[in-house]
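Q: Convert this sequence to structure tokens.
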Amino acid sequence: MAIGLGVVLIVVGAVLIWALDEAVDIDFIAENTLGVILLIAGVLAIGLSLAINAQRSRHRTTHVEERRTDGTP
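A:
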């Protein structure tokens, strides 16, 4: 799920940086600045997600199966 969120943040950030040339006017922040922030956040989200998944795959689990017999053949 974090990889999908990262991709969405990258796409929205890229749109704000390169696609919207003064088409949208946000008063309190520049569109390019917001785009760069979202782009960096998306890259970090993907990087962290891949790092966490890599740690999970290194974890080995042991499956123990116990069999009991009552002694009669």
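The chain has a mean pLDDT of 83.
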